[in-house]
């Protein structure tokens, strides 16, 4: 970046965050009853909660769990993380004992097109630069553990292949926490016999790793290592599965993950405690922060506000059908976030034309929001809508959203937390308290005993509104094999574009009656789900033509600018 243009916009997220002096992390921990001796400091303003204390807290988890999700995302923005933080601050302002539970950002989108994941405006978690970059090193540990296993597989083959691994059927790829399309498909082992056997391989982004998913679903270090051992990494020549446990490497993997497994504690700009831990993507993984952090927060606070990645058709469905199923959780309320601008895009308006009032487009686009409300209500959980308000929004546009939501029994709260912090989300907070304190009837979308294909069909038809699914013959054979190996009880994790209910990212709004293409399936036996890859979804993203990395810089004082 040209040094001549390294100016910091005073209204940018990084500038707003820089104006706030973080409170000592011991003071933040004390708000939740975490003693100083249970905190491992990473400087003045971030720490890990000692695993022993965290396990003691999560064993008595009894707080109210609030899930924040959103409509299908658009380039116009929705502000789900910002709303999660603003709501948490508002609950604290209302006198409630509250904790926020979020995922850690991946370096892929930080340097790509999406940017960071620490909120925005006056609803942020800090230190935002640290959290968006290396933070406490958790993702590095996960990448190292994953790649240690990859090295162990090729090393096992090199030294005689006692497990009779079929090198054509090694399914364990390598990972890096960056967007790098050139690594999607590679050849390893070139250079002669000393370098192993040449074979096709590839890289996924770290947040798509099964190790990341296991890290976020495990309940203890023992559970973590056991799940790592169950991971299927290849098949032998008899077409039988080969697991990581058979390679005798999972103890070392767990050792690499030991410190990372402790939940991270930081704070919002207003000093509300936030546990930020784990970070699987929601379009290619299950998209939720760690069970360890969520349950720890539920043991320390009366209200816990968490989020699930991307739209409710992806992150929220997986939160409910995978995370809640495995961890014994039940949300007390769901908040669906939308913006007028995003609904205009779902109503067919081009991004360059979003400024002027267009009530007709809002009414058309509101169908996307209504469908998400209907889907979440089908899980038996009360739903409320938060409109992340822009200054360009007009009263008639807001009224159109309120009317559409009222037709399906959902209340709407325009919120200004980006500009006003907690004060801008108080009406939302009051409604969330009312909903969370009332009885709910949470239920899963499908039973574990259904065949895998029927689970895929249930999600496609009941959540996406597809007419049916088209499963590639090779994927269908895999599903049959998975069931024969005893994995038929597992839930399904749909890997699909986040931009549409369909598998076509250009099909916004409320598509229905389409056939959902399932091109491949993958077994994540350790994480405890089967991944169904829909359409052209990638497990290694690429960088855009002008990535966010071009705008990031460090000044002479060491201040990092350009992050968003």
Give me the secondary-structure topology.
Layout: H1 13-18, H2 25-31, E1 39-41, E2 47-49, H3 51-58, E3 64-70, H4 80-93, E4 98-102, H5 107-111, E5 119-120, E6 123-126, H6 128-132, H7 138-158, E7 165-170, E8 174-176, E9 186-188, E10 199-201, E11 203-205, H8 210-217, H9 221-230, E12 232-236, E13 241-243, H10 250-257, E14 264-268, E15 273-276, H11 291-300, E16 303-307, H12 312-327, E17 333-338, H13 340-346, H14 359-377, E18 383-388, H15 395-406, E19 411-415, H16 417-420, H17 426-436, H18 452-462, E20 468-471, H19 473-484, E21 492-495, E22 515-524, E23 529-534, E24 553-554, E25 560-561
Parallel strand pairs: 3-16, 3-17, 4-15, 4-16, 8-11, 17-18, 18-19, 20-22, 21-23
Antiparallel strand pairs: 1-2, 2-14, 5-6, 6-14, 7-12, 9-10, 12-13, 14-15, 22-23, 24-25
Helix pairs in contact: 3-11, 4-17, 7-8, 7-10, 9-10, 13-14, 14-15
Principal-axis shape equals: globular
Cα gyration radius (Å) = 23 Å
How large a portion of the residues is in β-strands, by DSSP E?
15-25%
Helix content: 25-40%
Based on secondary structure, the structural category is alpha/beta
Give the structure's gist in a few sentences.
With 564 residues, the protein is an alpha/beta fold. Helices cover 34% and strands 19% of the residues.
Structural overview:
- The protein is an alpha/beta fold and 564 residues long.
- Strands 1, 2, 3, 4, 5, 6, 14, 15, 16, 17, 18 and 19 form a twelve-stranded mixed β-sheet that branches. A four-stranded mixed β-sheet has the order 20-22-23-21.
- Helix 7 runs antiparallel to helix 10 and helix 9 crosses helix 10.
- 55% of the residues are buried.
